[in-house]
Amino acid sequence: MSNHTIKSAIGATLLTLLAAPAFAAGGAVQHTPGATARAQELAALPDGGWLTLDKHGLHLLDAAGKERAALPMRAKQLDIRSHADGALAMVLDANTNRAQIIVANTKAGQLRPQAQLPAPSHGIESACLFRDAQQLDHLFLIAKDGQAEQWVLHGEQRQLVRKLALPPHVKHCRVDDASQTLLVSESGVGLWAYDADAEGVGSREPVALRAPYGKLEDGAGALAVLPGGGVALLDAKGKTLHLLRQRDGVWQAVGRQSVGGAKQLAVHLGAGAGTGTDAASAAGGRTGSAAAVAAATAAGTGSATAPARAQPLAQLLLPDEGAKSWQIRPLAWQLPKATATQAAPLPIIEPRAQTEPMARPGDAADDPAIWLHPTDRSASRVLGTNKKQGLLVYDLQGKQLQLLEVGRLNNVDLRQNVQIDQQRYDLAVATQRDDNTLVLFNIDANGEVSEAARFPTGLEKIYGICSYQPAAGGLEVFINDKDGTFLQYRIGRQDGRFASTLLRKFKVASQPEGCVADDRNARLYLGEEKRGVWVTSADAAKPDALAMALPVGPHLSADVEGMALYHGAKADYLVVSSQGSNSYVVLDARPPYKVRGGFRIGFNLAAGIDGTSETDGLDVTSANLGGAYAKGMLVVQDGYKRLPDGAQNFKYVAWDDVARALKLD
Predict the structure, then answer these.
(1) Would you call 557 exposed, middle or buried from its count of C-beta atoms within 10 A (0-12, 13-18, 19+)?
(2) For the chain, which end, N or C, has fewer CB atoms within 10 Å of the first or last residue's CB respectively?
(3) Considering the entire predicted model, what is its pTM?
């Protein structure tokens, strides 16, 4: 990689910038007093302008280098994303210890401060922006001791999403929006990669470390995101630029260059630098034919009309010592070769409501079941298990109405209007992991739940459960063990009490959990967590072999968890929790089990509800519950409660939102 500075342009707009009297010849951008002199940080705006940050304030320049606006402040940590009016910028105000959000509009010549965040309780050392798959903007704030917070920014809303524990002494951070990766530069140690997506437990990976753990000298410094899953990283002394890329889940060094002592860097994206999201947003650059023209010049062709194949994807901008000028250098960076067609992103659906959180922290909530009120559907109930406490009952607004402290319940299911010995019951069944029993609950006409019986099973590690109402009447129950064993029981009455009779036993090869019975067609769907969804007969008198309905693969990611049936007016659908991808799959509930699509559940900021992740159990109904739920409701367990952090709960989703997103009948 050449170290020469560019003597002409890196784009039609930048060509004008360099040729303007405010800038010195020879390729180094020379800043003028009051506008760009002593700029410590620089960002190319998507609309062709520039933002510069120095000790005196933030400056907005047009493409010709003319200052259009300025905000006096003592600030650092400039980061940007695209915005309808130009760019959304973030700086850290050193005097107030607050992140300032600003809309930069080059055309109007405006720098408009936006609503402030609450004053932090600790000193902020580093900050950066993130745009998620839902196109919501987030802000990471990182303290010197590693305390960190993630906030979501939406209009005037400023909501805390979660708190994080990051390394101490993080002076620089950036987010790759396309891969949802938070990159943090730990002074004296190296560069780390974290999940930027708030849902889930998250992960941490080393990207580049100092000796003897890696090849960095004295640790990591400033960084910039490159298209195609890459990072440009300065070492702690700013002497060497390291290029790194993630390949097959592993970070690899792909190049390095001596740069002579820079403390900051910026990247200008050339044509074709799209990363799967907004390229200009992802790396603070801009794209288009103008950049392509100058990229050819930067590559040493000497011609602004050079063929596209000679164009590098990015240009590197580095301040010289004292930040009196910025050097522009070509960057030998190309997108990785495509190995497969990338799947289109899944639609994101907003939940309409959520239940009150569990009374126990940690992994507590697991599986819901929907009970329909016989005369007033708006008074229907949602039953949910707490693996540390028992059974909870909620109304359709998510308010907790009952808690039955009956021990560690795992899964729950129910059937209504069940006829047993000339009497009719609404009955729920659940697996109890303390004593490996099947627990039976009675539900009265008002939705009040009470324990009715408890049956031993002989299983060692009881797990999942689902109920089945045969056409001939009565109630049958399928339960399973972690070793793959399934037992099918019939529930009856004997001597004035409920009783159970074992009808059938079969087994799958590995751990199952979720299952659901199709009463109309006497079919049983069951999930083997690492393999997929099986289907077999629910009729114990007519058992048939297991057949694979949907294997783990492109649509379904292990673990295969909760599942439920939606009986629509025109079609029946099976809904399955694809826990490994924090998503949900909808397929036809009849052969050949065509996959209709998948979706994720995201933020509903207006209602203050977070998205979902690592869903265990779910249930769905097609009944008209009124309002948003006129076409039914989906209830899912949420593995990590955010906005802010809290104990687990259940989310309510309008089926109409699912049907529209997937174009279902």
Answers:
(1) middle
(2) C
(3) 0.87
